[in-house]
């Protein structure tokens, strides 16, 4: 026995006892019941660690108990760890539990053991595992068990000398019975009294047969007689026990009768299991009887007066069936097929009375039955009834063979006479129908229901039922071809809902179908073919109703895809035209005021920044100056937004890969939208190149991200994706968007979404769904303007409660991409070159000149083009840079630059303007070889652009 003991008895070595295992520290070895019981027993904890193994276990598996001290039970068995974990879990959660186990020990690898687990009530952290196998010789003397039990006088309980056995018997949850050599009960544990419904002590001195069911007592007497005549042995089996209240319970017992006069029995309560089995058997039998009685098919069983060998010649077997087979069981349906009224009229009739043995069909039927191994399935049998009319039956027959002899057979028979009579008419009708279906240019389809749909369902339930429980059972080549399939067989079996793209449209069409008494004509629907392309049809649909259920639907479709695509493209074009017409007046207004307004803002911004640089850090005026700067910055942003959606801004595009812009933008995206929103990037690795302004794309991303954030107030997921896209003749949008290769940018959220009414106005300027003061309505309008000015397209898909997706398409170009870098200016660049500053607005000219002088430049001022040219011709200094306004009287900035190049070919040029007016750009897009500074601007942006135009490095100042 392996455990923490305080006495070095037996084969186990002593270990120091631990407080948490007081039970085991009190167990002695040698004569204890635990070591003497002739069954292998282990005691384990919830982890499977072995805390006790009796001597029988050690001898059976030829292992020393000391070797088990460091082992886990799972290491000893062949079962997987998860199986052992599951067994231990159930063993500790239930009173008792069983499983089958094989051990890894060399001498027992092929022997299976049945394990019964029993929890110890006072030691909830341990279970005892009792082992059983088919046959086993025990080397332990049975006298050891009896030596642990001291009998008292008759009708008194045995006294248990061993403390562990006392606890094992007392606290084991399974019933334990101990009787003397006369089978008088002398000791029962609490589990036994509870099992039989007696109070403690009531059964002492009673004969053990009194607790056994009367019907099992004779079997018990036979066992007792057998035990007297033979040597003691184990007894196991299922018994019915008689409770005090007269009810019966079932127990699976393991018992042993010992020579010293001790009969011990362990019982596992299987009453509930037996009751469930009995109930299932009874219900199964009742269901079977009801099925047989009420079946419309004939069900019968015939048996033989004398079973015959299956080795007999086939012809002799056939004759024996005709002569000796008679009906043992059948239902009314079978009797009626033979002209009888009820089943009792057919019982005991022989085969020769029912089937003419001279009829070759009947002979062939039984010959086929024998040749096919006494089993036939769905075999048609033709005959004639009493009036000479043709009859047809579909037969199934299964024979039962016992000890090489044919004993009986069960069979079913279905009357298919009417079906056969209609087959010819149906075949003729089907031939005409199939010729029509095959040659029709229209799409013809038949949908079957599985099972048929009751018509008493609600409209919503019927719609769902049709979508989910009807499938395409038949169609012609025209329908398969329209959905992109070469063969009809490739489309058969698909559910009805797979042919409708939109659940909303699907429901609308089916609602019309149901409301129109299951008949509709020329109703439009939108569907998706095998390639994912949109298809449009005019539908005719009729439902076939049988017994107040719709069993199938026939449909005819006319393909109107090209017509519908043309109509939708026309509508999209009209919508875009209306959008452009709405924006154009605002764009003209914005462009008209931008030049002058930006000049005002430029003066304010330059002077504010100059004042800020000159004020001490703690000057109280700095707060007011910063307030002015903030308002001025917001005004500048407002003008840029007006120019953006009016498509009047100046773009500086480059060939770029959008992924680079997105990755840079994602670095600040979390701060922009908040931690409550999860960000997912799915960027195509092989993304192509598009020609756009990176800064404007960042503005697009920012506006779309903010829009998504506002739609997900309770958190959600913001997805930004890129992909290569091909618009061809199979894509609807090619009607409103030119065919070709595009780069697709997708921004989607799972927020509140929009209804159709909101979607119609989403890109309009000053339209917002936010409450007053929370939005300007310029965000998405700005996005729209930037995309259109970049020769792109934008589409929105949204539904209430399902989120919103914006998809932007930029034309793909065949150029090498320019790397996008995030520029961070930490210091204001300085220089000492000579700059000719030309600006007709005196305040801007003075402010810009002051800034550049502070930065070390030599500044020459001119208020118009003529004056600038005159200065350049007369100046002895080398002028390095021409910094000129674009819009000026008499001579614009571009013309001035051209003339200046004639005088000084090496001079650099930097244009500045608040509105290009198409003078230096084509459609608002700046030429690649020009440098441009948009008004209003700050000192640092002015200084940076000057250095960029000069193209040389310089010193910097903080």
- Rough outline: elongated
| Class of secondary structure makeup | alpha+beta
Helical content band: 25-40%
Strand content: 25-35%
Measured on Cα atoms, how large is the radius of gyration? Answer: 48 Å
Please mark out the parts with pLDDT under 50 across 5 or more consecutive residues, or reply none.
1-32, 135-145, 954-958
**Total strand segments:** 38
Indicate the mean pLDDT: 78
Straight-line distance between termini: 86 Å
Number of helices: 28
Largest β sheet strand count, sense and barrel closure: 7 strands, mixed
Secondary structure blueprint with pairings:
Blueprint: H1 22-25, H2 33-36, E1 41-45, E2 50-53, H3 55-60, H4 73-76, H5 81-93, E3 96-102, E4 112-120, E5 123-132, H6 143-147, E6 149-150, E7 159-160, H7 163-171, E8 176-179, E9 185-188, H8 190-196, H9 214-229, E10 234-242, E11 248-258, E12 262-269, H10 271-294, E13 298-309, H11 314-324, E14 325-330, H12 332-337, H13 351-354, H14 360-371, E15 375-384, E16 390-402, E17 405-415, H15 417-439, E18 443-454, H16 459-469, E19 470-475, H17 477-482, H18 503-515, E20 519-528, E21 534-546, E22 549-559, H19 561-614, H20 621-645, E23 654-656, H21 658-673, E24 677-683, E25 689-692, H22 694-711, E26 716-727, E27 740-749, H23 756-761, H24 779-789, E28 793-799, E29 803-813, E30 828-829, E31 834-838, H25 842-854, E32 858-862, H26 865-874, E33 881-885, H27 893-903, E34 908-913, E35 921-922, E36 925-926, E37 932-934, H28 939-950, E38 956-957
Parallel strand pairs: 24-26, 31-32, 31-33, 33-34, 34-37
Antiparallel strand pairs: 1-2, 1-5, 3-4, 4-5, 6-7, 8-9, 8-12, 10-11, 11-12, 13-14, 13-17, 15-16, 16-17, 18-19, 18-22, 20-21, 21-22, 23-25, 25-29, 26-27, 27-29, 28-29, 30-38, 35-36
Helix pairs in contact: 11-14, 16-18, 19-20, 19-25, 20-24, 21-22, 22-24, 26-27
């Amino acid at each position: 026995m392996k455990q923490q003991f305080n006495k070095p008895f037996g084969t186990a070595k002593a270990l120091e006892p631990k407080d948490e295992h007081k039970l085991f520290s009190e167990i002695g070895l040698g004569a204890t019941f635990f070591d003497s019981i002739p069954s292998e027993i282990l005691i384990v904890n919830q982890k499977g660690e072995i805390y006790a193994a009796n001597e029988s276990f050690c001898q059976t598996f030829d292992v020393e108990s000391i070797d088990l001290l460091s082992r886990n039970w799972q290491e000893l068995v062949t079962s997987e760890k998860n199986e052992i974990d599951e067994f231990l879990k159930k063993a500790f959660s239930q009173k008792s539990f069983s499983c089958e186990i094989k051990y890894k020990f060399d001498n027992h690898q092929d022997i299976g053991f049945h394990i019964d687990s029993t929890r110890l009530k006072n030691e909830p952290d341990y279970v005892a595992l009792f082992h059983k196998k088919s046959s086993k010789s025990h080397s332990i003397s049975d006298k050891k068990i009896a030596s642990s039990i001291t009998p008292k006088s008759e009708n008194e309980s045995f006294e248990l000398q061993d403390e562990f056995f006392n606890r094992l018997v007392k606290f084991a949850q399974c019933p334990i019975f101990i009787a003397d050599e006369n089978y008088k009960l002398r000791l029962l544990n609490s589990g036994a009294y509870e099992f039989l419904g007696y109070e403690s002590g009531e059964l002492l001195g009673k004969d053990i047969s009194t607790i056994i069911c009367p019907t099992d007592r004779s079997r018990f007497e036979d066992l007792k007689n057998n035990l007297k005549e033979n040597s003691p042995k184990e007894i196991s089996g299922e018994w019915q026990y008689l409770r005090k209240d007269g009810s019966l319970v079932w127990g699976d017992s393991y018992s042993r009768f010992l020579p010293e006069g001790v009969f011990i029995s362990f019982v596992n309560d299987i009453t509930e299991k037996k009751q469930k089995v009995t109930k299932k058997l009874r219900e199964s039998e009742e269901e079977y009887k009801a099925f047989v009685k009420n079946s419309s098919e004939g069900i019968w069983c015939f048996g033989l007066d004398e079973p015959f060998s299956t080795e007999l010649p086939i012809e002799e077997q056939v004759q024996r069936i005709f002569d000796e087979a008679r009906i043992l069981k059948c239902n009314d349906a079978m009797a009626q097929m033979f002209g009888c009224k009820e089943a009792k009229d057919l019982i005991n009739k022989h085969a020769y009375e029912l089937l003419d043995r001279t009829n070759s069909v009947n002979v062939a039927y039984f010959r086929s039955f024998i040749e096919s191994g006494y089993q036939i399935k769905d075999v048609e049998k033709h005959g004639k009834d009493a009036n000479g009319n043709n009859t047809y039956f579909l037969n199934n027959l299964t024979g039962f063979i016992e000890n090489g002899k044919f004993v009986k057979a069960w069979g079913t028979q279905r009357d298919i006479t009417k079906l056969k009579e209609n087959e010819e008419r149906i075949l003729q009708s089907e031939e005409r129908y199939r010729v029509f279906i095959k040659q029709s240019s229209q799409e013809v389809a038949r949908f079957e229901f599985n099972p048929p749909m009751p018509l008493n369902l609600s409209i919503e339930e019927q719609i769902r039922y049709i979508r989910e429980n009807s499938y395409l059972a038949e169609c012609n080549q025209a329908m398969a071809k329209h959905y992109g399939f070469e063969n009809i067989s490739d489309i058969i079996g698909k559910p009805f809902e797979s042919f409708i793209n939109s659940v909303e449209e699907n429901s609308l069409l089916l609602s019309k179908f149901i409301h129109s008494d299951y008949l509709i004509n020329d109703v439009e629907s939108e569907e998706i073919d095998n390639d994912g392309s949109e298809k449009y049809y005019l539908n005719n649909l009729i439902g076939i109703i049988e017994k107040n259920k719709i069993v199938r639907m026939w449909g005819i479709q006319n393909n109107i895809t090209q017509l519908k695509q043309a109509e939708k493209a026309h509508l999209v074009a009209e919508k875009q035209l209306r959008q452009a017409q709405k924006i154009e007046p605002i764009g003209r207004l914005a462009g008209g005021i931008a030049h002058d307004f930006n000049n005002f803002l430029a003066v304010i911004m330059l002077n504010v920044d100059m004042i800020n640089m000159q004020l001490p850090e703690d000057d109280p005026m700095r707060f007011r100056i910063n307030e002015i700067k903030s308002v001025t910055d917001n005004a500048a942003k407002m003008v840029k937004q007006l120019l953006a959606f009016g498509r009047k801004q100046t773009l500086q595009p480059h060939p770029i890969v959008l992924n680079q812009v997105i990755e840079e933008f994602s670095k600040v995206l979390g701060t922009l939208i908040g931690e409550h929103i999860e960000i997912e990037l799915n960027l195509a690795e092989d993304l192509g190149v598009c020609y756009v302004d990176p800064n404007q794309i960042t503005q697009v991303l920012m506006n779309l991200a903010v829009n998504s954030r506002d739609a997900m107030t309770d958190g959600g997921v913001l997805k930004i994706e890129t992909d290569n896209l091909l618009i061809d003749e199979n894509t609807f949008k090619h009607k409103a968007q030119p065919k070709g290769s595009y780069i697709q940018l997708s921004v989607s959220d799972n927020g509140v979404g929009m209804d159709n009414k909101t979607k119609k106005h989403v890109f309009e300027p000053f339209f917002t769904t936010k409450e007053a003061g929370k939005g300007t309505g310029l965000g998405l309008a700005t996005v729209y303007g930037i995309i259109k000015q970049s020769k792109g397209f934008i589409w929105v898909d949204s539904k209430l409660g399902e989120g919103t997706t914006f998809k932007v398409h930029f034309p793909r170009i065949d150029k090498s991409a320019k790397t996008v870098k995030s520029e961070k200016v930490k210091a204001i660049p300085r220089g000492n070159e000579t700059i000719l500053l030309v600006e007709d607005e005196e305040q801007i000219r003075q402010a810009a000149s002051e800034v550049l002088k502070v930065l070390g430049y030599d500044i020459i001022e001119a208020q118009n083009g003529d004056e600038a040219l005159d200065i350049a011709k007369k100046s002895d200094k080398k002028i390095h840079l021409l910094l000129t306004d674009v819009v000026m009287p008499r001579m614009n900035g571009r013309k001035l630059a051209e003339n200046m190049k004639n005088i000084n070919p090496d001079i650099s040029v930097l244009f500045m303007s608040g509105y290009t007016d198409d003078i230096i750009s084509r459609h608002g897009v700046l030429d690649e070889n020009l440098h441009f500074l948009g008004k209003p601007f700050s000192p640092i942006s002015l200084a940076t652009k000057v250095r960029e135009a000069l193209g040389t490095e310089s010193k910097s100042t903080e």
